[in-house]
Amino acid sequence: MTGRQAWRIVAGAFIHFNDDDGWAMASHVALSTLLAIFPFLIFGASLASFVGADAYADTAVHIIFDTWPKSIAEPIARQVLDVLTVERSGLLTVSVLITAFFASNGVEALRVSLNRAYRVQDRRSFLFIRTQSLVFVLLATLLLVVVSFLLVLGPLLSKTAVEWMPLSANLMAHFENWRIFAAVIVLFFGLLVCHRWLPYGQRSFRAILPGVLLTMFFWMVGAKIFSFYLQNFSTYVATYAGLASIMIALVFLYMIAAIFILGAELNASMLAESE
């Protein structure tokens, strides 16, 4: 790829993002995501209690919030844990099904933004896309349940390995941040699934990988920069008082949503350039 081609791809991505209301779509995705987090986790907690995954709440909080700046994640994570530790009567209650439906609204916001970014009009039926969104919520919940089992089992296996093979202690020490690694891996595969199956049309994994990697890179960089800004320059607490933590989370999600959409715009621009 020549420098001129690279410039056309990047410029095309930004121009289309701006012309197609990318900033407004980012705010829609951010708000929908914030509103979907609690229903999604409540549905997951209900399913986890049904299958006996007692560590689900702690695992889910780490997987979702470990890629957020600490100053944003901590107050929300505490509230989430308070909500998830409340006992629930059953799995298939009306309230739990309603939470699954509201959680799927977050998936729908991602779908709309991706369809715009990839410059396609979704021709699938409402019933199909709603069902797909609910299936995505269920699969994501099951993934977190499985991960919660594995992350509880991992430290136990590590401890046993050190007891049986003391020389492996140095190797096992490298896995102390296993929750962060798990969060990054889940994020990577989650982005791949979103780009591959949510928008209308067919795209290869090779075609969507650049946007996924771009999103992950700028997500991590953006989280560090935003965390530094909050620690040194932020006036959110003085401005929004008791609403500060929610406003901070919303601004962070807005930034991440814009990065997510730009990743799709980059993929679309590369596909257009190759045609």
Question: How would you characterize this protein structure?
Answer:
The chain has 275 residues and is mainly α. The chain contains eleven helices and no strands. Helix 3 crosses helix 6 (126-164).
Kindly summarize this structure in a few lines.
This protein has helices at residues 3-19, 22-51, 56-65, 70-84, 94-117, 126-164, 169-173, 178-197, 205-232, 236-240, 244-274.
* Overall SS class: mainly alpha
> Count of helices?
11
Main sheet summary: none
Helix share, percent:
over 70%
Unreliable segments of 5+ consecutive residues: none
Order of helices and strands: HHHHHHHHHHH
β-strand amount: under 5%
* Distance N to C terminus: 14 Å
- State the total count of DSSP E strands: 0
CA radius of gyration = 20 Å
Mean pLDDT score = 80
The shape is: globular
Helices and strands in order:
Layout: H1 3-19, H2 22-51, H3 56-65, H4 70-84, H5 94-117, H6 126-164, H7 169-173, H8 178-197, H9 205-232, H10 236-240, H11 244-274
Helix pairs in contact: 1-11, 2-5, 2-6, 2-11, 3-4, 3-6, 3-8, 4-11, 5-6, 8-9, 9-11
